[in-house]
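WARN no homologs supplied; continuing
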Amino acid sequence: MNAAAAPVAAEAPQKIKHARLKGDHIEIDEKIQFAVNADTILSSSDSLLGEIVDTIKENPQIKKIEVQGHASSEGDPGRNKTLSDLRAKAVVAALVGRGVDAKILTAKGFGSSKPVADNNSEDGREKNRRVEFVILDPASKDAAAAPASANKQKAAGPNDTRTP
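OK structure emitted
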């Protein structure tokens, strides 16, 4: 009977996750979809937003996340900056509405100032239209950095073989 139960348990993790913690980012492998030229998040992004919320809640060491809105170079640069900022704020509001503490979220729009691809092709412009989740205060990094430097200083004292 135990052998029959094992395959059932193995099937559950096969669900594809579209949001995961990776270094100093929450990486998403699909886009949050917005209405054209607006900051309204489309309902087709509901499950992705849910996965982002789950990722945040599963990692309590995360103390601050900057939700970054980015745009392609098409259109008016001022409008792109404004729209990317409004979209980042809409994502923050959506996450807060799903239970994420507002104190750990901040929104910032960058317009087209930080491209990840060439804006001379439609494919490149599409890649540049994105929302990113940058972890600004991961407690695990801060906590790990302090003891490491303290240990190095302690180790240097008694193990110092230099002559004066």
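The beta strands are 19-22, 25-28, 62-70, 105-109, 130-138.
OK
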